[in-house]
Specification:
Helix content: 25-40%
CATH topology: Sufe protein. Chain: A
Strand order of the largest sheet: 3-2-1-4
Largest sheet: 4 strands, mixed
Oligomer: single chain
CATH class: Alpha Beta
Number of domains: 1
Bound molecules: zinc ion
Strand content: 15-25%
CATH architecture: Alpha-Beta Complex
Length: 167
């Protein structure tokens, strides 16, 4: 059995790996939905593109610049929601949100978090919670319509001149 400390190291390794070498990073030529997300507290900026066919996320990718947590979260999100129905993708977001906030608002049942559980450690760093949820908020906006822009801070304008802070 792994000790809790070793498990935490493993989790950090997975997050660092996805942060350094994000999967599904780049434009998505076949996309029919797109949204931009911005976290002014950290400077994370991500665009999520997806190909929605009927009710199914056929393909998904992301672009942008952010800290290791937001990049890793976006990378693992794309792997987790590809091929899922819109309802399952939103259910997964609810569970992910519960995981990192320590709340229990998500309805029982639905898809399992699987490897997304590596983000449970984010709970101990409240400032990082918005970094981890940004790609999911952006995905939700993309599912709701084309050309949405979301910010983790209500009313904050996305300014392209703002320099990202070090995370
Ligand atoms: Zn961040």
């Amino acid at each position: 059995m792994s000790s809790r400390g070793e498990l935490r190291d493993l989790y950090q390794e997975v997050i660092l790996d996805h942060g350094k070498r994000p999967r599904n990073f780049g434009p998505l030529a076949s996309a029919n939905r797109r949204a931009e997300g911005y976290n002014p507290l950290c400077g994370d900026r991500e665009t999520v593109s997806l190909r929605l066919e009927g009710d199914v996320v056929k393909d998904v990718a992301f672009e942008g610049a952010g800290c290791a947590i937001s990049t890793a979260s976006a990378s693992m999100m794309t792997e987790s929601v590809r091929g899922k129905s819109r309802a399952d993708a939103e259910a997964l977001f609810a569970k992910f949100h519960d995981l990192i906030t320590g709340e229990s608002k998500a309805p029982a049942g639905g898809p399992a978090l699987g490897k997304l559980e590596v983000f449970s450690g984010v709970r101990e760093y409240p400032v990082r919670i918005k970094c981890a949820t940004l790609p999911w908020h952006t995905l939700k906006a993309a599912l709701e319509g084309e050309g949405q822009t979301v910010s983790t801070e209500d009313g904050a304008e996305a300014s392209p001149r703002e320099e990202p802070t070090a995370c």
